[in-house]
Every structure is written in structure tokens, then in C-alpha cells.
Amino acid sequence: MRPTYHLPEEIQQQIWKELLRATHDRHHGWRTPVLATASANGIVNARTVVLRRAKQVEGGGMLEIYTDRRSAKVAELVEQSSACLVFWSAKLQWQLRVRADMSIQTDGPYVESLWQIVKQTRAASDYLGYLPPGEPMPEIKSSDATDKPNIDDAALSDENEPENYFAVLTAQIKEMDWLELGLGRHRRARFAAGQCQWLCP
Ligand SMILES: Cc1cc2nc3c(=O)[nH]c(=O)nc-3n(C[C@H](O)[C@H](O)[C@H](O)COP(=O)(O)O)c2cc1C
């Protein structure tokens, strides 16, 4: 049986425990939130991402996501840094909506240190694509397919280290909206600026 948390502080602590757990546990429902963004002209967009890091600090916290710096989400976040991350765990029956101010890091010692780790993994190819994400694929003639390496192989087999497009998105949390689905009743609470407010679900 799942424990029930009654005090807002207990719920908030548990939310952070689950966020931390999700950064390590591939099977955790909160491992893959949906990141929603909006561009300056009001067009909205949303996509699944992987939660890489979670850190609670006094009065707030931060979350981290890795991406290709050429992706649409990065351009959208440059235009409009306010974004929303939506998490759902069927096991916990918890939804978490995080309103955040997003920043993008594409270089510097921190990004480089992470890249040194990521580049040793299979995920490295996510950040080495010859063409940007969302770009139409060039037409490959069947005669080309046999005697030419594919685009990713070409990038990886370069004698010099291939250019990477690895970027780190950091979400500075402004507000968390937690919803628990229960059998008889649901519970909802908002955590913002160090305060908790129970809300009608
Ligand atoms: C389970 C899953 C996890 C994903 N994780 C990431 C991720 O961590 N970072 C990322 O940039 N894209 C990730 N993607 C791909 C994105 O959902 C999206 O297709 C891609 O980033 C392009 O999005 P954009 O054009 O809106 O920027 C993931 C997709 C799935 C299905």
C-alpha cells in the first residue's frame, strides 16, 4: 500500500524524492516528462524529454534536460523562456506540473564535463546528427546506399572529433502544481515561493 502524506511539507519532500529517483530509474513514470514551450508569436509546442537532474534548493529548485542545441525547443525558449514540464506517474497516481524559467547552456566547463560522459554512451549520436532535428531527410538514391556511409556514421568516423550539438536546458522552478488521484477523492496543492496552497482538484 502506498503511504499517504498529509502535511504539505511531507508532500513537497516526497515530490523531490520522486524527482530525484526519476533521474536514476528508467522505469519511473516521472523519468520522461512533457516539456511545453511557446514561441513569441504564441504558437505552442510540446514534446517528451528525459529528466537528467533534479536539485532542491531553499525556496525552490532546478531540473535539467539534455538536448540538441539546433532543435526547435531551443529556438522557442530563446524567444520565450517561460515553459511548463508535465509529469505523470501511474504508479504514484501523481501528476506534477512545473512552471519554470528555462535557460540554455551550449558551452562552458559544465556542459563540456557532461559531454565527456555523454559521448561515451549510445545517446551520443542524439547530439551528433549531421542535420538538425526536424530537418527533411535528404533523398538517398539506392545506388548511394551501398557505397556511402550513412549521415551519422560519416559524422562519427571523422578523424577529428565530430562537432557535437549537445546543450543543457535548466528549469528554474517557479511553481509546482501537484495532483493526486484517489479512489474517493483527489487532492491538489500548489507550491510556490516557499508557500503551499491546497486547491480544489
Ligand atoms: C521517451 C522519449 C524521450 C525523449 N527525450 C528527449 C530528450 O531528453 N531531449 C530531447 O531533446 N529530445 C528528447 N526526445 C525527443 C523529443 O520528444 C522531440 O521529438 C525532439 O527533441 C524534437 O523536438 P523539438 O523539435 O520540439 O525541439 C525524446 C522522445 C521520447 C519519445
Please sum up the structure shown:
The protein is 23% helix and 35% strand.
The molecules bound to the chains, other than polymers, are: flavin mononucleotide
The number of helical elements comes to 5
Q: What integer value in Å does the Rg equal?
A: 20 Å
Percent helix, as a range, is 10-25%
Mean pLDDT: 91
Shape: elongated
pLDDT < 50 stretches: none
Q: What is the CATH top level name?
A: Mainly Beta
Quickly count the domains. 1
Annotated CATH architecture: Roll
Major sheet attributes? 9 strands, antiparallel
Strand tally is 9
Helix-strand makeup class: alpha+beta
Give the terminus-to-terminus CA distance.
23 Å
- N-to-C series of helices and strands: HEEEEHEEHHHEEE
Q: Write out the CATH superfamily name.
A: Electron Transport, Fmn-binding Protein, Chain A
Instruction: Give me the CATH fold name.
Output: Pnp Oxidase, Chain A
Walk me through the topology.
Elements lengths: L7 H17 L9 E5 L5 E5 L4 E5 L2 E9 L3 H8 L2 E8 L4 E12 L3 H10 L23 H6 L3 H6 L9 E15 L6 E6 L2 E5 L2
Antiparallel strand pairs: 1-2, 1-5, 3-4, 4-7, 5-6, 6-7, 7-8, 8-9
The chain binds flavin mononucleotide.
Structure description:
The protein is α+β, with helices and mostly antiparallel strands. The chain has a single domain (8-135, 148-199), classed as Pnp Oxidase, Chain A. It is built from five helices and nine strands; from the N terminus they run αββββαββαααβββ. Strands 1, 2, 3, 4, 5, 6, 7, 8 and 9 form a nine-stranded antiparallel sheet that branches. The longest helix has 17 residues, at 8-24. It is elongated and about 65 Å long. It starts with 7 loop residues before the first helix and ends with a strand. The mean pLDDT is 91. The structure holds flavin mononucleotide (FMN). Flavin mononucleotide (FMN) binds at residues 32, 45, 47-50, 65-68, 71-73, 133-134.
